[in-house]
Amino acid sequence: MDRTDPFPRRTATIGLMAPWIGEMLATLPGLVRSYGPGGALDPRTREQIILAVTEVNGCRYCAWIHGSWQEFLGDGAHVDAEQALLAYARACAEAGRPLPADDLLAVLPPESVGAVRATVAQIEVSNLVGNTVDGLLARLTRKRPLAPVAFAREAVTVAAALPLAVPLLATAGVMRTAARLAPPLPTIEMPAAGEANLLTHLLAAAAPTYLSNAVVRLALLGLPRPVAVGIRAGRTASTIRIGRGTVEVENGISRDTILVVEGEVEPLLQLATGTIVRELSGVRIRPN
User: Where in the chain is CATH 1.20.1290.10?
Assistant: First the structure.
């Protein structure tokens, strides 16, 4: 960054963009897969990583867009282990270049690490472009030198980004509105302490994650009458009842269930305790 330039944030230049574009190309398959069903990176964790990088780079446009997405998706379940991913993301942003992810590879599958690397690269490019918009505005308002060559480069960057930026801003506005309209998550009603079976406990613990999405809360909590769904895992069964702003979980299959789902406890256990393996809590990111 030019020390004579009063603008405090990094903007899009060939030198700053090149390593991130190279990283995006190297991890592109993982990036595409991470946005599909059953992706290697939970959407909420991805938004946390994006916001961690954006906080370092100071891009107000990305902060607004992805803050809206995070608010729309909800907090869900988190574990302390996610801090290792955020530390890696911040370290890359502070270094201004992709850093080795060997520490993450020691405890996470390669596809998960690839998704993290791709997410960091993706938002770094977005941050640089977003900061370029503010940098261009600063030149137009004479808060920084006009510098015709740099002005032209920044104008081209902004013009190229507009077709993608406008839909993203509009979508973020819709997401933020939906989050404002969605009812808050109610207290989960369940049997008295000591009476609930394991499946009932897991359903109650996982319900906030299932209902953290604003649209899901609007649809399910806004039902005119509660709807009961039975869950059976092995020899254990429970019923979850949602509607009219309430969520209730009880032992066994209730008579008013409209559907019985059979499955395993493990996916619920993973959802209730967080999607990132706990071994990550011991990872230390070392920039080099």
Answer: 14-181
Number of H helices, E strands in the chain: 11, 5
Is the separation of the CB atoms in 239 and 226 below 8 Å? Answer: no
Q: How far apart are CA 280 and CA 286, in angstroms?
A: 14
| Cα–Cα distance for residue pair 127/40, rounded to 1 Å | 23
CA distance 72 to 69: 5
Entry pTM: 0.73
Chain position carrying tokens 């977005």: 126
Return the amino acid letter for 256: D
Count the neighbouring beta carbons within 10 Å of the beta carbon of residue 56.
18
Report the interhelical angle of 110-140 vs 14-26 (nearest 10°). 150
φ/ψ of residue 235, rounded to 5: -95, 0
Burial 63-100 (b: 16+ CB within 10 A, else e): bbbbbbbbbbbbebbbeebbbbbbbbbbbbbeebebbe
Instruction: State yes or no: pLDDT of 53 exceeds 90.
Output: yes
Q: According to the model, what pLDDT value does residue 1 have? A: 53
Topology of domain 14-181 in CATH is AhpD-like (1.20.1290)
Q: Dump pLDDT digits (tens) for 170-211.
A: 888 888 888 888 888 889 999 987 888 888 888 888 888 778
